[in-house]
From TrEMBL:
InterPro entries named among the record's database cross-references: RT_dom (IPR000477), RT_RNaseH_2 (IPR041577), Viral_Replic_Matur_Polypro (IPR051320)
Domain of life: Eukaryota
Signal sequence interval, chain numbering: none
Protein name (database record): Reverse transcriptase domain-containing protein
Annotated source species: Solea senegalensis
Residue ranges occupied by any Reverse transcriptase domain in the UniProt entry: 1-95
Pfam families given in the database record: RT_RNaseH_2, RVT_1
Length: 223
């Protein structure tokens, strides 16, 4: 915080807390990883997720988290906390026995108007690609929407061919009907299945649990 100090007519002043808008704020938060060795904790900046298999274990793990934060002088705002929930929204995802895209984010994509410029098309593709690990064959599906974008300027108009319209509607439909991605389990069989065509490659990572294969993530990219 010493680097935030400013000289005023009333003396030297500096922030006591991380201030909004500081260029290095995110990196500084992420370096403060005092929960690094707790395998049941997932941290992104100042968001902390504690995932537990049972209610009793959840209480025990929360106690360990609170003790660790207290040891390092970190204060929790209980008004912003949620405890003991079977389902929670975290970093654009809805987390339960697995993970799916956050419904409100999916609705934004569903309501997105047909892009008229290259810039708005890139915005649409960015939103869809944020969830590409939920989408089998995403690269193949989106390929018509990418066609020629790199050679155009941001304000150039998009030429809506029948193929591109089909891909645009298909991307919305695919995101609205994604599969639940399971949480990785220990001591189970893992399979990696790959595929390729002349225009794209794809893969899925699955785990075998209770006699069934559960998807963990999908991958694809155009060639």
């Amino acid at each position: 915080m010493a680097k935030t100090a400013v000289i005023t007519p009333f003396g030297l002043s500096e922030f006591l807390r991380m201030a909004f808008g500081l260029k290095g704020a995110a990196q500084t938060f992420q370096r403060l990883m005092v929960l690094r060795d707790l395998a049941f904790v997932f941290v992104y900046l100042d968001d902390i997720l504690v995932a537990s298999p049972s209610a009793d274990e959840h209480l025990s793990q929360l106690k360990r988290v609170f003790q660790r934060l207290d040891e390092h002088g970190l204060i929790v705002n209980t008004a912003k906390c949620q405890f003991g929930l079977p389902v929670i929204d975290f970093l654009g995802h809805r987390i339960s026995q697995g993970a799916v895209p956050l419904p409100s984010k999916v609705q934004v994509v569903a309501d997105f108007p047909r892009p008229v410029s290259v810039k708005s098309m890139q915005e649409f593709l960015g939103m869809v690609n944020f969830y590409n690990r939920f989408l089998p064959h995403a690269a193949h599906l989106l390929l018509p929407l990418y066609g020629g974008l790199r050679l155009k300027k941001a304000n150039d108009q998009v030429d809506w061919t029948p193929e591109r319209i089909q891909a645009f509607d298909g991307a919305k439909s695919a995101l609205a009907n994604t599969a639940l991605l399971a949480h990785p389990a220990s001591r189970v069989s893992i399979a990696l299945t790959t595929d390729a065509s002349d225009v794209a490659v794809g893969a899925v990572v699955e785990q075998h649990v209770a006699g069934a294969w559960q998807p963990l993530a999908f991958f694809s990219r155009s060639l």
